[in-house]
């Protein structure tokens, strides 16, 4: 394709304190060392319950991966990275050390050791990067997901965090501060939670889908090359969505076809994705439902636009 740069992208999520260096100790395992990539994406649930030592260990884990650009978001388990949550429900306000964990945690995630290792911790919104190869990417990131059992980065099921008010479904409360732009505004979406109906089915009760309706509306408008997430460990996998030509169609109505994609790790999938017509959806949860690291990273060759 003219005007693009082939870029190796590795996607992981839900490592929950796992160190890839320990993989030999784990049955099922990963091919070691992890392959080199141009971009590493981590879609949240870095830790079990946050904690400064845990964030430092996450930086160590990410430092061991060879990639020029490492984009990282938090998830519901990274409790103190969510300031709004931490100060109202997470911390003990009478314990100064506990109270300070939000600021100190963010300092670790954005600090000099993280920078040296090529790690960029992303807050919700749009972020643009250019690689040494000249590949340019605009990423929409969000660590938020529907409220579940009182964890961090929550929104309610009847709230829409991802669309402009006129783009929300009827009777939904729009709370978007950073709405997702329409096509062709973004190349990659990184969220902790899945969109409704795509790699979002839970083990119990069987067949239940728990992904976000508003997020599906948003991704159907944005039609990025890649939307990666995690959160629902048992729904690990990848699917290529083909969108209908009619860009007025929104949400599930916009989907023409949904096709499972195999993981060929440690090789990389050469997925030719037609921008605006197709989106590769990847649930990259490394941990299975029992928090055992049984799932491989995803490795893709993605055609990104060349910076002009
Ligand atoms: P985590 O606690 O790591 O965020 O999610 C672990 C597991 O909790 C998921 O694999 C899924 O089984 C379950 N889970 C997470 N969010 C939801 C939800 O919104 N609804 C339901 N029913 N289960 C969820
Ligand atoms: Mn998780
Ligand atoms: Mn989660």
From TrEMBL:
All residue ranges annotated as the Calcineurin-like phosphoesterase domain in the record: 8-234
Pfam family membership, one: Metallophos
SUPFAM superfamilies in the cross-refs: Metallo-dependent phosphatases
GO MF terms held by the record: hydrolase activity
UniProt xrefs under CDD domains: MPP_239FB
PANTHER family linked: CALCINEURIN-LIKE PHOSPHOESTERASE DOMAIN-CONTAINING PROTEIN (PTHR12905:SF0), METALLOPHOSPHOESTERASE (PTHR12905)
Name of the molecule in the record: Metallophosphoesterase domain-containing protein 1
Organism: Lachnellula cervina
Classification lineage: Eukaryota, Fungi, Dikarya, Ascomycota, Pezizomycotina
Gene name as annotated: MPPED1_0
